[in-house]
Known about the structure:
The protein has an eight-stranded parallel beta sheet with strand order 1-5-6-7-8-9-10-11. The protein is 36% helix and 14% strand. It has 14 helices and eleven strands. It is an alpha/beta fold. The chain has a single domain (7-369), classed as Alpha-Beta Barrel (TIM Barrel), CATH 3.20.20. Helix 4 (153-166) runs parallel beside helix 5 (189-198).
Amino acid sequence: MGEYNIISSDNHLIEPLDLWTGRVDDKFRNRVPTIIAMEDGDWWFCDDHKVVGVALGTQTGERFKGNENLTRAGKFEDVRLGGYIPDEHVKDMDIDGVDLSVVYPTVGLLLYSIPDTELLTAICHAYNDYVADFCATYPKRIKGIGMLNVDNPDTAVKELERCAKLGLAGSLITVSPPPGMEYNNPVYENLWAAAEDIGMPLSLHLATNRPGPGQEFATQDQLSEAFQTNVDHWVRMSLAHIVFGGVFERHPKLQVGAVEHELSWVPHFLDRMDYTYTQRAQRPFWRRFEEDMLPSDYFHRNIFVGFQEDALGIQLRHLIGVSNLMWGSDYPHTESTFPKSREIIDEVLAECSQEDKEKIVAGNSARIYGFNLN
């Protein structure tokens, strides 16, 4: 690979048991995420809603020993320490050959399925305090991504501003808003403007769906193979709403990312957006850009895409845009590349030029998240 920095643009924390119990208002104290021991392992519940098991943090690296070792059952006592102890997180980065880490939540991703918007806002606020403290231990090596509930965009703007003051590098927004609140809705205009002004990238991460028709994440035990195979559907819909809604025309410096959705879908998506814009009969409510740009031009200027091991996507990198790509290990989740990240990077990027490799594994992430590579 060469002697230069490697940034994982998509690492995760495993939220500690007491994260929310001591950080929310008293009125939410009995409704916040809590672990309950069940026959098939420890599960997080929130407001009587079964959210996710802890097994995502207990099987780091196990997939390399064979798929038969993987399970949805797990105990919190077996969670990898680097998931919630900063010193151990950095030790594992060193083991894996990763120099810099951008951290997302784990339980927090699935908490976007909690229907109560006031509770979700409180959950986001508490998590943001925690992740800021976590990253402050190693500010030159770890940057945190906050959580925003965008049900009320004005409230989200205030929390985004607070995230920036806490030193966080970006914020999550739901990958799929409820029907009627899609991202071409003018109600989000102040959010886009604030993110652009502050310089905070916004991430559409896998699994952050809000409740609505067909949102299977609201019932984890019934998650189907079809859903798992087609998880890029929701991010494509949201990105298309943002692009066709003229958000990037009005906010040329805004950066929005598709995180942990891999890459291979992007060339077809770009082709279909441009075809729709140039070849389809126009509806009265369809927008025409004032600028002489195609939808794909806005994608290349304003959207970043995170991946782990999508070799096919890398073959198509020049159609996607090399400057739009960010590698991430997904540590410490079951599907993580830990502890073989260097080996996997070498394999997936084998046909790339040195310049392309440096952009994909470090340069693009450093530009978006403000890491200093010197």
